[in-house]
Amino acid sequence: MLESSTRLKPHEAQNYRKKALWVSWFSIIVTLALAVAAFTVSVMRYSASAFGFAFDAILDVLSSAIVLWRYSNAAAVHSAHREYIACVILGVIFLLSSICIVVKAIHDLSTRLLPEVDDFLFSVSILSGILCSILAVLKFMLGKVLTSRALITDGFNSLVGGVMGFSILLSAEVFKHDSAVWYLDGSIGVLIGLTIFAYGVKLLIDMVPRVRQTRHYEMFE
């Protein structure tokens, strides 16, 4: 059982579980809408930055869907086994996403892709930065109360989405003032990708043994 089982009364745990579900549904709706908008920009304007952002938004949708599954069973709100399985799945998603982000960033650097932001992408980036940052804070807070590594990890993914949204604008603004710094966007992409990769590896190292340990102690539904 998770630590929250000893700190929260049953009705409190269920209340926070419902909040986690609401935040996850809101996250899915928001990030899915942002992903569709960004994909539209990438197709219409051949924007590599928009495609990268849309890809990260889709990953945010997947991570929130995993959290939905994690808290869909009211009886398993304190289930360590269910928690650890969700974290392992998130870890795998993080590894795959980091590889895609790094490969894309390296490709952009090798082809000297220059940062370019139009009005639509600017609006999407601003919305992403603000909304994803708010979602990250809510997920971190709920994750701390429920002692949920899955929720905290989902919050980290939302935070990455917010950083990527703002980084698109930062790179374009810096490029306007100094064209010699065209590589900033790609460099930030590599840094974010490596950070996600490290987080995913740490998550798997921590959680895979725990899944095996708890498998014999809890009934999993």
TrEMBL record:
It is found in: Cytoplasmic vesicle, Secretory vesicle, Synaptic vesicle membrane; Early endosome membrane. One of its GO terms (molecular function) is zinc ion binding. GO terms for cellular component: early endosome membrane; late endosome membrane; synaptic vesicle membrane. The chain crosses the membrane at residues 21-44, 50-72, 84-107, 119-138, 150-170, 182-205. It comes from the Eukaryota. Keywords: Cytoplasmic vesicle, Endosome, Membrane, Synapse, Transmembrane, Transmembrane helix, Zinc. InterPro entries: Cation_efflux_TMD_sf (IPR027469), Tmem163 (IPR026765). One of its GO terms (biological process) is zinc export across plasma membrane. It is a multi-pass membrane protein. Belongs to the TMEM163 family. PANTHER family: TRANSMEMBRANE PROTEIN 163. This is Transmembrane protein 163.
